[in-house]
Amino acid sequence: MDSEKGRPRALTPEKQERLIELAARGMSVGQAARRVGCSAKTVQRERRRSPLFDYLLGKARSGGPGRAPTLADRRGARGLGRSNRVGRWLRRVAAGGRSAP
Length: 101
Known about the structure:
single chain; mainly alpha; 6 helices; 0% strand; flat
């Protein structure tokens, strides 16, 4: 039996990936959200819950690795903790490194 209780999330990891792809192709977040079957509000909520999703979506919308790290990048990396692998990766990316986790 599934360990999570309550209603399943509308924005599954597969939908998150698709949304990031659509945003990278120049589609607005609202349009991409409708295309994957959720609302823009759902995307906003998930961006607040997941610093990694927020970072990846922002990176896709800004045109790729050349952009300067934002305050949200630094906050997200700091909020994940030093022992967290994703947190270390986000801090490395925010500092200018480009390796994957």
